Amino acid sequence: MVQAVMDKQFEQAAGRESILSVRDLTVGFGDNIVLDKLNLDVLRGEILGFVGASGTGKSVLMRTVLRLLPKRSGTIKILGAEYDKVSEEERIALDMRLGVLFQHGALFSALTVRENIQVPMREYLDLPQELMDELARLKIELVGLAPEAAEKYPSELSGGMIKRAALARALALDPDLVFLDEPTSGLDPIGAAEFDELIAKLRDTLGLTVYMVTHDLDSLFSVCDRIAVLGQKRVLVEGTIEDMLACDEPWVKSYFRGKRARAIVREHG
Ligand SMILES: Nc1ncnc2c1ncn2[C@@H]1O[C@H](COP(=O)(O)OP(=O)(O)OP(=O)(O)O)[C@@H](O)[C@H]1O
């Protein structure tokens, strides 16, 4: 009851719709409870950065929200609908409103960039090839790849291009919410900063909501509107970067006020 009141207040204070709402989520493997009664809101139009020490369950949470892992208990609402309670048809409609960029891109190596982008279109829509080609061309442009990238295979692309191609695929169905699993890992600092800029641009131009698991302090400082910290099997702290800098929870303090973070704070003024 108290939680429900707090949730309502939180949403009202933010004045925005909660596009993903997780309540009392418990997930475990055998005796290993990874997430215990976890609560989380992602608000429409925000970039939420999700951090936490290695092994705290960031991937498990993302995979559970995407229904790739089963939950023990709790509710997950996407765009106000609870997966468990809707028809198969509505479930498919909900799936179409989500995009995912897995770590390392995870493109199909035997398919060109254009064909990769068309995979979700083939899975969910019945469109003529010409229209799919036009849509793929638009997505390629949207993520800042050259038109020639369309007919290239993943092995012919740089790490940064693979991330962009994977993002284009995640955007294939014009989702409301995209999940990015460590999108800047493996990129050099310039490539990572460019990718961050792209994410911010897409949020601004498409009104996209972004759920980003990241270890990248630069991303957390430069593009995330809010940050959620996972620890002790739940969301330990959530708020703006200023909230993180003011937080005295030991892990948050060492992460956001460590040597590397201090250098970034100086950079970002
Ligand atoms: N399929 C699985 N079967 C059993 N245990 C699992 C499975 N997937 C994850 N775990 C366990 O869940 C815990 C959380 O793992 P998870 O990969 O979510 O951590 P993480 O926070 O994403 O870590 P990192 O930052 O290193 O990627 C770990 O103890 C891991 O061993």
TrEMBL record:
Q: Which SMART domains match?
A: AAA
One GO molecular-function annotation for this sequence? ATP binding
Give the source's domain of life in one word.
Bacteria
What residues does the ABC transporter domain cover? 20-257
One Pfam family of this protein, by short name? ABC_tran
Asked whether the keyword Nucleotide-binding is assigned, the reply is yes
Sorted alphabetically, the keyword list is:
ATP-binding, Nucleotide-binding, Transport
What family does the database annotate? Belongs to the ABC transporter superfamily.
| UniProt protein name | ABC transporter ATP-binding protein
> Which species is the source of this protein?
Sinorhizobium americanum
